[in-house]
Amino acid sequence: MRTARKCLDESIKQCKPGALFRDLGKTIEPIARQNGCSVVRTYCGHGVNDLFHCAPNVPHYAKNKAVGTMKPGMTFTIEPMINLGHWDLEHWPDDWTSATIDGKRSAQFEETLL
Length: 114
Fold this sequence. Notes:
Layout: H1 2-12, H2 24-34, E1 38-39, E2 45-47, E3 54-58, E4 76-78, E5 81-83, E6 89-91, E7 98-100, E8 106-108, E9 111-113
Antiparallel strand pairs: 1-5, 2-3, 4-9, 5-8, 6-7
């Protein structure tokens, strides 16, 4: 859990007008890896506007292809999900629940930024 929190806290420090959304993953993934963890690629942060989940997509892993630059007044989330094992997930039949494919633990923290 400490690693997941640190990933979030350090990525928030990178947020300012002109910063690229894709660069947040360059902050998050090294912290996760240094602590023996992986970053889930299936889910990402997102914009918040008239629709709750909208552009921009905010991936939490390095070497992503997200587009977009942070601008004053933008509202978006950062919500890295950090796994002790493999980054991949399996989806349960309820179409909501996800679990790690290797059964190892996962932690996630999120914040909405304006």
